[in-house]
Design goal:
Blueprint (H helix, E strand, L loop, with lengths): L15 H8 L9 E6 L3 H9 L3 E5 L6 E5 L2 E8 L2 H14 L3 E10 L9 E2 L3 E5 L15 E3 L2 H12 L5 E2 L2 E5 L7 H9 L2 E5 L2 H11 L2 E11 L12 H29 L1
Parallel strand pairs: 1-4, 1-5, 5-12, 6-9, 7-10, 10-11
Antiparallel strand pairs: 2-3, 3-4, 5-11, 6-12, 7-8
Length: 264
């Protein structure tokens, strides 16, 4: 009698052809870029962002929208938190999409950051419970990096639109609710300038699969000033937040095309 247990193929073992079949796509349809947005407001953001694209269709998996911007095929999805973001990063990483951009909002830990600034972290630490599955060292002690070229293009695209950008040692955390004042102070003391729920996850999966990734994160709440996303903004702050939320998607689209132009 053979006591060996049969091998079972799990989702993490699936390859390119299997994912293409699952999505109902041909290899020629693989998008040149994926843009993810971390937001609660899925319906509003999806309608807004898809208005920029042509020939939009939803893929076989829900909330993954395929369309074209100036002839370049891209996928957009509104995600919230690392468990959702990792699904797109993994799926299209296996397929060979060459670059991905995370947009959304973040909390400021650096007192010099203001609402409406956009953080484009060159370095991030993942403490969200997912990235360690794609790493060979502990996720809470290692630093992952964004792609420097893609990040530079994004910074230029934003600054040309009058948006103030910043870099910081960024933290990706598991929940916007599960954070105390003591945690915020610890993060600040460790040198973190900003915090979100998805960016470091994307950077880690990008390193695993070998694609370029960056993040354009609009500062909303200022945690060291005890101002959360629940607190009202001044009219000026609201205007800056709205302008930055518009600019990050336009910039994300622009830099995906810029790389194609440079390669040609």
């Amino acid at each position: 009698m053979n006591d060996r247990q049969p091998k079972h193929r799990a989702v993490m073992d699936l390859g390119r052809e299997e994912w293409l079949n699952a999505l109902g796509m041909d290899a020629a349809d693989i998008p040149k870029a994926v843009i993810m947005e971390g937001s609660w407001w899925r319906a509003q953001r999806t309608e807004w962002r898809l208005s920029y694209l042509d020939d939009v269709r939803e893929l076989a998996f829900p909330d993954m929208f395929y369309g074209f911007w100036q002839g370049t095929p891209v996928v957009y999805s509104c995600v919230y938190g690392a468990p959702r973001a990792v699904e797109l990063a993994h799926l299209f990483g296996v397929l060979g999409t060459p670059r991905m951009v995370m947009i959304g909002t973040c909390g400021a830990l650096d007192a010099g950051l203001a609402t409406g600034d956009v953080v484009m972290p060159s370095r991030a630490v993942a403490r969200e419970g997912v990235a360690h599955l794609y790493q060979t060292v502990a996720a809470d002690t290692s630093i992952v990096r964004s792609d420097p070229h893609l990040t530079a293009l994004g910074r230029a695209a934003l600054e040309s639109r009058g948006i103030r950008t910043a870099d910081s040692l960024h933290l990706t955390w598991s929940s916007i609710f599960a954070q105390s004042g003591a945690m915020v102070e610890e993060w600040r003391e460790r040198g973190h300038g900003s915090v979100d729920m998805e960016a470091a996850t994307l950077f880690t999966v990008a390193k695993h699969f070998g694609f370029a990734a960056t993040a354009l994160l609009v500062v909303w709440d200022q945690l060291t000033a005890d101002r959360s996303f629940l607190d009202p903004l001044t009219p000026r702050e609201q205007a800056r937040l709205d302008a930055a939320n518009t600019a990050v998607f336009a910039a994300a689209l622009e830099i995906t095309l810029d790389i194609d132009k440079l390669r040609r």
